[in-house]
Amino acid sequence: MISGKKRKIRIIAAVSAVILLIAAGVIAFVFADLSNEHLIYRGNAFKVLSLDSDRRKAFRIGVSSSIPDIHPYNHGDETAEVLKKLVYEPLLDINNDCDAKYCLAKEIVFEKNGEQATVRLNEDKTFSDGTKLTADLVYNSYQWFIKQETAYNDLLSVIKEIKVVDENTLSFAFYYANIDNIKVFNIPVIYMFDDKSFYGSTALGTGRYAVDTLTVYSEIVLKRNDEYGRKAKYKKVVIQAFDYGNLDSLLDAKDFDVFVITNKIADKVKENGAYNIYEMGKETGWYLEYNTENQDARKAVANLAEGKKFFEATQDFGVYSKGIVSAYIKKPNYYSLLEKGNLKDTKSISFLHNYEAEANGIYRNLAAALKEEGVETSENPMDIYEYHPDEFEEDVLIYYGKLTEVVDDEDNKSFFKNNSDLDAEEYYEALEKHLASQNKITPLSKDTTWYASLAGRNNLDLFD
Fold first, then answer.
1. Is 371 exposed, middle or buried (0-12, 13-18, 19+ CB in 10 A)?
2. Of 11, 131, 148, 268, which cross-links 127 as Cys (Cβ 3.0–4.6 Å)?
């Protein structure tokens, strides 16, 4: 028989263990994503502990537009991006930071000066019905997208030919070398399990979730994919249009785990207190493009534009870009590789820019800094449609757009020539180093998208 004293000690020990377990869980709950540099506002995870059991098992994603048809992977919108993460995995995953990781492929190598790529598949991957991934199925998926009207038509138009080499190998030939050709491997891979699939049902994927039900103009419900290999975090995921007209009630009810927000409603999200806010970079942004051969002057101007202080003084939106290919690319990046330069042989610098407030702000701040260095400046403001980044007479162009618009054919060719047999996972690091060494372009900022995400909840790696 256990004495009263020993029983009391055991009860105290058991209660203490439970308290420690709860505390550990709360600590993990509160401090999730602490190191994520995309996290710009931290919500209070304790406000989320009240979710009931069924709600905890489900993850709800709010998107800006409703589901238009039974082929949501076609549209290149928020829904398609979510499905690419969870259901329709690509050959290569390229995240917001331009960190490329293999997904359905186990190797992609660019050859023949960037005009060809060999793809070797991950032989362990299967679709959600148990069908093994093969080169033939990948080929069929690409041919399906090429023949349909989808968001990927322009991207896929660069493909000259796709060949099946063997069961697990394909060869892609491109019409020309371009730094964006790698994105061809970042489109969904789908499996149409019969000829009537296009009309009758949505396709299958290889991701950790599979489509359970899809209701046009309503919602998509995802279930765990038992063929994936490891159990997914949530029992189901629901993708549904977010009704911004009922923002207050949806925030209070915590009906959605993730949804896109704008600057206008960010304050309401912060006031609610239960949501983290993530800022994710986009492709568009501001650059300086040089039309002078004086590398010392280029480096000196770039150093004057470096840093968050310059960004905050010149622009109201977006994020300071540390790198050329991405605002968040890790070192080595453009500014970590940038040398000091000097202006000792430079008496004047001319600038071309459009009429936007940001362009004017960038010019005024650079002009003031250059004046302190004894360099005179002149400006030529022009409508954006009156010039092209490939053709301008001024020394520096202040340009807003995509990176591919300021990288010309010569830059594309020299990149692949200097990086033969380039592995896809090393692609963006090599591209950043190459463009930094050429120093024809200085990154200033990138546009961003903001997401609200319930604090403490596993966010399915949507912000990694």
1. exposed
2. 131
How many other CB atoms are there within 10 angstroms of residue 68's CB atom?
Answer: 13
Q: Which two tokens stand for residue 70?
A: 């039974």
Calculate ∠ Cα 296-301-305, nearest 5°: 145
Q: Phi and psi (nearest 5°) for 261?
A: -130, 165
Mean pLDDT value of segment 8-18:
43
Give the span between the Cα atoms of 208 and 44, in whole angstroms. 29
pLDDT, residue 25, reads 38
H or E stretch including 416? Answer: helix 409-417
Q: CA angle, 239 as apex, 231 and 100 as ends, to 5°?
A: 60
Residue 311 has pLDDT above 50, yes or no: yes
Predicted local confidence at residue 45, as pLDDT: 94
pLDDT of residue 194: 60
209-220: average pLDDT: 95
Cis before residue 332, ω within 30 degrees of 0?
Answer: yes
Q: Contact at 8 Å (CB) between 107 and 121?
A: no
Longest dimension (CA), the chain: 97
Q: How far apart are CA 236 and CA 211, in angstroms?
A: 10
What band does 387 get if pLDDT is binned at 50, 70 and 90? Answer: confident
Please tell me the distance from the alpha carbon of residue 261 to that of residue 450, in angstroms, as a whole number. Answer: 5
Residues 6+ apart with CB under 8 A from 463: 33, 36, 38, 39, 96, 278, 280, 451, 453
Q: Is the Cα dihedral 122, 127, 129, 132 positive or negative?
A: negative
- SS3 category, 145: helix
Can you spell out the DSSP letters for 285-340?
EEEEEE--S-HHHHHHHHHHT-SHHHHHHH-SSSEE-SSSS-TTPPSS-HHHH---
Average pLDDT score over residue span 54-82: 94
- Counting every residue written for the chain, the total comes to 464
Torsion, CA 89, CA 92, CA 94, CA 100, rounded to 10 = 140
Q: What is the mean pLDDT of the chain?
A: 90
At residue 25's C-alpha, the angle toward residues 22 and 27, to 5°, is 110
Residue from 461, 436, 462, 438 nearest 451 by CA: 462
pLDDT mean over 37-58: 93
